[in-house]
User: What shape does this take?
Amino acid sequence: MFRDANKRMHDVLDDAGASDHRYVPFLCECADEECLARLEATLEEFEEVHITPDHYFILSGHPRVEEEETVDQNDRFVAVVKERV
Assistant: This one.
């Protein structure tokens, strides 16, 4: 659900010509379905993390499922992949 909302936000900003270097607030895509936390990322970072459908970004320390592995991180978010089991 949050991934879809983030995708819509990305598309609106991309269509409006937003800069790839400006931080945009996106919803945390952690395992907590009630989480409404926001993280900041550029449009380019969003595209890089979501290049495959099983990659998500979350805030550090937020709930994760057992099958998730970190693929990248910085001081603003953690990129995770949900491993298929």
User: Anything to note?
Assistant: The first strand starts at residue 24 and ends at 27. The radius of gyration is 12 Å. Residues 9 and 33 are 19 Å apart (CA to CA).
